[in-house]
């Protein structure tokens, strides 16, 4: 959606607090964009009590707004915010996003995201359990496979043997 279309949808106001100044679109993956003011986007300091505006925005009929409110409430430590979040009645499409399992992200020792098929280099000599083999530091492991349910593990071939490798001991090449 273009900003003009978003402003029409929002009535030309911030979809959190109703402010009309310094509005901009913010993409809230995976549900879509919302219109927020500079304070709600985090570009300007907020006044005490500013986030109480979320009490009204939580009941928005726009899925992207409701999901953005739900996420923002998670970051607030005040009791009222946690109570509001727990009591929100989410739209069905927002509930599906909230209930979806979080995607497992595999990161190397430097915090770089790994993908299936990447080449990594071992940063430490690794003894292979159940074998006398030691995978040497500097060994390139091509065409890795990600372990779907464990972000700390990948699989790859070293010296013709398929092994599980902890991501903390590799760096992306």
TrEMBL record:
User: Per UniProt, which keywords does this protein have?
Assistant: Hydrolase
Determine if Lyase is one of this entry's keywords. no
Q: According to the lineage, what is the superkingdom?
A: Bacteria
Provide the Protein YjdM C-terminal domain boundaries: 107-173
Q: Which Gene3D superfamilies match?
A: SH3 Domains
Q: What is the lineage of its organism?
A: Bacteria, Pseudomonadati, Pseudomonadota, Alphaproteobacteria, Rhodobacterales
Q: Which InterPro entries match?
A: YjdM_C
- Any idea which GO molecular function terms this record carries? hydrolase activity
Q: Which organism is it from?
A: Pseudorhodobacter antarcticus
Asked if the record carries the keyword Hydrolase, the reply is yes
What is the designated name of this protein? Answer: Phosphonoacetate hydrolase
């Amino acid at each position: 959606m273009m900003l003009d279309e978003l402003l029409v949808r929002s009535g030309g106001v911030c979809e959190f607090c109703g402010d009309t100044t310094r509005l901009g679109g913010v993409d809230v993956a995976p549900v879509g964009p919302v219109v927020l003011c500079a304070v709600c986007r985090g570009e300007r300091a907020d006044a005490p009590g500013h986030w109480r505006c979320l009490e009204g925005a939580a009941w928005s009929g726009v899925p992207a707004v409701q999901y953005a409110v739900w996420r923002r409430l998670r970051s607030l430590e005040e009791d009222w915010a946690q109570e509001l979040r727990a009591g929100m009645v989410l739209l069905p499409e927002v509930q599906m996003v909230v209930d979806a399992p979080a995607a497992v992200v595999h990161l190397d020792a430097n915090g770089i995201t790994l993908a299936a098929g990447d080449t990594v280099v071992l940063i430490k000599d690794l003894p292979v359990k159940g074998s006398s083999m030691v995978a040497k530091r500097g060994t390139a492991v091509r065409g890795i496979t990600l372990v779907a349910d464990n972000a700390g593990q990948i699989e790859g071939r070293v010296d013709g043997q398929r092994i599980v490798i902890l991501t903390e001991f590799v760096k992306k090449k």
